[in-house]
Amino acid sequence: QMFSLSDQTYKVLDNLQDDIKIIGLYETGKEDQSVMEIIDRYAKRSKKVTFSTIDPERYPQLVMKYQKDGKSLGVGSLIVESGDHFKLIDRYDLVNYSFSNSYNQPQAQSLAVEQRLTGAILYVTSEQLPVVYTLVGHGEESIPYEIKNQLDIENYTIEELNLTTEDEVPEDAHSLLIISPKRDLTKDEEEKIRDYLSNQGRAMFFMKLMKEDLPNFQSLLKSYGVALQHTIVVE
Q1: How many whole angstroms separate alpha carbon 4 and alpha carbon 221?
Q2: pTM greater than the 0.70 cutoff
Q3: 186, 135 in Cβ contact below 8 A?
Q4: Residue 5 and residue 152: Cα distance in Å, rounded?
Q5: Residues 195, 151 contacting (CB under 8 angstroms)
Q6: Fewer Cβ atoms within 10 Å of its own Cβ: the N or the C terminal residue of the chain?
Q7: Alpha carbon distances (Å) from 214 to 162, 169, 228
Q8: Separation of alpha carbons 185 and 180, rounded Å
Q9: What pLDDT digit, counting tens, does each position of 89-104 carry?
Q10: pLDDT for 108-161, tens place per residue?
């Protein structure tokens, strides 16, 4: 089922209200047939979806308006556009890679064309995109690449949040992400997170084993029946 579409994609296509243009950056006659096959299924499913190609070498001026942050668009990349909104899909993002070999070199594992295209269609047709805030100020670790990449595919915007300088968790927060803090919350920060969670807020806590206690984090988690225990599993 390499070229079949998922039920989720069919649902998105069947409920489209706006026209969607998919533009492939290919030299004439050098299109990627695997990608073309999948795009063709989108166009066949919905009359709202059209596909065209632009040769970036011959028509650089047509490609220029889609360039963001000074990044150039390479051959094989895709552009998904609806009205004034568009999203770029780099050709390397159309493939899932694994790093399981002994040389830690990327190996193509599977196609990610549908995953990227459907996510891009949702992006250009959404009025408001969800925001994930990552807590900072306590020695937190950064979001792992794999998770950040998946959040990007799912059209989440990622913002940092320092509750020592902000009065509250922003209203547009889809969820609060706390990754391996090395220092404790202040009482004031704890109360701000409590207020957010008590108002149907969502949070994910990833806590590492530490010698030091984090009493305010522990107090917050204890309110929800979660305890931090100093435990090591040895295999």
Answers
A1: 44
A2: no
A3: no
A4: 20
A5: no
A6: C
A7: 18, 21, 9
A8: 12
A9: 988 888 877 766 566 6
A10: 667 889 989 999 999 999 888 889 999 999 999 999 888 888 888 888 889 999
